[in-house]
Amino acid sequence: MVLLLWVAFFPRPRRSLCRSCIGRILRIHGDICSGEVLTVMAACDSGGKPVEETVAALAQWHYESGLRRKLRVVQNEIKRGTHLWQSMFQRGLLTSNEQHLLTESQDHENRPWILRCLAQSRRRRVNYKLEAMAEILMPILVSIMGIFVLLQSLAVVMPLQQLIMGLL
């Protein structure tokens, strides 16, 4: 009970619990962060800022430490001459299909649109996973609450039944 209250009222353990247990099972957290990066890259690319500078800024200022670390590695690999999208794929920030699509769109003007579409695809994937998880967890939670109510009602009724049986 104390553990549930601690998780409910303090955000840090709740955040770490969600990231470690639920997020690792469904890889939701990585999709959310990658989608945010793609959205920022699309906005900066449509504004005329080079994507490599956007990666450098995100590697320095992004709020998520794990993502910052990955982006720093990507930034260092870009400085060594590795292609941006290949490096992001190797770090797990892009899937192979996304990497291939962005590599093919390198010289086109529609790259910001592609980045936005990929970010929306990530968001849809996260929403689908969360809805599937809710579909699975809802009957389990209802069953647990039903068992709890059953035990409480038995705790009230059993002494009354014994009292009545004692009177007969």
Percent helix range: over 70%
State the helix count: 8
Number of β-strand runs: 0
Name of the CATH class: Mainly Alpha
Strand fraction equals under 5%
- Tell me the overall shape: elongated
Order of helices and strands: HHHHHHHH
Largest sheet: none
CATH superfamily label:
Type II secretion system (T2SS), domain F
Q: Report Rg.
A: 25 Å
Structural class: mainly alpha
The average pLDDT is 85
Task: Summarize the structure in short.
This protein is 85% helix and 0% strand. It is mainly α. The model has no long low-confidence stretch (mean pLDDT 85).
Descriptive notes:
The chain has eight helices and no strands. It is mainly alpha-helical. Helix 3 (28-46) runs antiparallel to helix 8. It is elongated, with a radius of gyration of 25 Å. The protein starts with a helix and ends with a helix.
Secondary structure elements and pairings:
Elements lengths: L1 H8 L1 H16 L1 H19 L4 H11 L3 H16 L3 H7 L5 H9 L6 H57 L1
Features:
about 170 residues; mainly alpha; Receptor-associated Protein
